[in-house]
Amino acid sequence: MQVYLDYNGSAPLAAEVEQYLINRLQEKGPYANPNANHFLGMKCSLAIEKSRNSIAKAFSVKSEKVFFNSGATEGISAVFNHISHINSKSEKKILIYSDLEHSATINCADYLNEHDDFEVVKLKVLKNGQIDLDHLRELIAKHSSDIKLVSVMAANNETGVIQPIKEVSSICAPKNIPFFCDATQILGKSPFSFDNLKIDFLCCSGHKIGALTGVGALIVNDPDNFIPLIIGGKQEGGLRGGTQNYIGIETFGVAFDLIENKMSYLSHIESKRDQFEESLKNLFPEIVFFGKESPRVCNTSYFSIPGISNSDIQVALQMNKIFVTTGSACSDKKDSLSHVLNSMGFSGDIIKGAVRLSCAMKETVNCFDYALEVIKEKFHK
């Protein structure tokens, strides 16, 4: 039996999405340019709008603020491109983010620092895996007029730690400081509400929730004044040129409609995760669980067992057809230490042992048990 424990990297197609695709292929269409003014084109366009409405409802925004693209990385690039253009004549411009952010965000910030004279200021990170809100308040009190963007993700992709974005919103909004939130990892894994939050830009990806890879969404609070990354034609209201990946977008909508049902068994998954961590703690008293002191998405366990390398654990699990990762999928193949754990203040030896397990969002979850048995058999003496 194959056990997949890297859902934070990419989720397999949801069963409902797979069935939707099968039905659609059997029906042989419609296949058309969704921007065409004939019947088939309009039918594809209506399916896109149905998905747009599903996403708008989930994030408590108007549908005209939701724009489809290829995924969160494109959304991040689009936001930073916009910020760069609208502030091109500013004498002083500051970007605020932390090393908890996804590498796509960090690399975009570094690019603006190198090429567009943005000053990059990194938020301090607490040992529990959350940003330091007091540091953010200090920075805004000192530089509010020069801060062009604050970027804080909703939940970290490695630790699963949920960030205090409500507080970030309440700190930034009174000063009219643009706030960007990468919501990719929180979808379907926490009953988090985006109601009444002032978020200027928000992005997410379909493949994290069981849709096809290569589709995502960017939510823009003020679309009339947004400068697009991809010009093209007038697709997506002119905010993202290029013929839409309409079949991918349809699966995105199907996957979003499943999120509400998942909320009913979050506690069950969290309980399974906590039992797994308690059992590991009994076997290895010196084990370190990253972010355990903070609220986390329910499906994620990120840990390090002193004296045991993460590659040894990963290989042992993989030999038993259990697939896990040693961090972010975007940096997993690099011979480098996690920038997330480094920012949290952990030593190199602890970071070298870091292993992440992230399970499916299903009512019956016993995948943690399989991993526990292998780790116990191979490494407990």
State the separation between the terminal residues, measured CA to CA: 26 Å
Q: Strand order across the biggest sheet? A: 2-8-7-6-5-3-4
Can you tell me the CATH architecture of the largest domain?
A: 3-Layer(aba) Sandwich
CATH homology superfamily of the largest domain: Type I PLP-dependent aspartate aminotransferase-like (Major domain)
Number of domains: 2
Looking at the structure, what is the overall shape?
globular
Along the chain, the helix and strand elements come as EHHEHEHEHEHEEEHHEEHEHHEH
Structural write-up:
The two termini are 26 Å apart. This protein has a seven-stranded mixed sheet with strand order 2-8-7-6-5-3-4, with helices on both faces. Strands 9-10-12 form a three-stranded antiparallel sheet. A two-stranded parallel ribbon has the order 1-11. The protein has twelve helices and twelve strands. Strand 3, helix 4 and strand 4 form a beta-alpha-beta unit. The chain is globular. Helix 1 packs antiparallel against helix 7, helix 2 packs parallel to helix 7 and helix 3 runs parallel beside helix 4. The mean pLDDT is 95. Helix content is 39%, strand content 12%. The chain has two domains: 127 residues, Alpha-Beta Complex (Aspartate Aminotransferase, domain 1); 247 residues, 3-Layer(aba) Sandwich (Aspartate Aminotransferase, domain 2). With 381 residues, it is of the alpha/beta class.
